[in-house]
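Reviewer 2 asked us to include a model.

Predict the structure of this chain.
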Amino acid sequence: MHPQPHEPPVEIRLTEAETIALAYRRAARGDAWVALVRVVEDALADLAEAERRSLRRDRLVSHGYVRGRL
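Predicted model (structure tokens):
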């Protein structure tokens, strides 16, 4: 089996980052710019979600301290 021009040869082992990058590139039908934009969009969305969860956790902890006061 011959690899496609935008895919590594079959016998090469990819890192996790390379595997993810290749999946994005495939999903973008080989368009590297579109793949890059989608990766950044997903990373920013994940970061925003992590921040939201962290703030929510901090509020829950703060409420716990207030409820625990005598």
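Helices lie at 16-27, 32-68. The CA atoms of residues 9 and 33 lie 22 Å apart. We have added this to the supplementary material.
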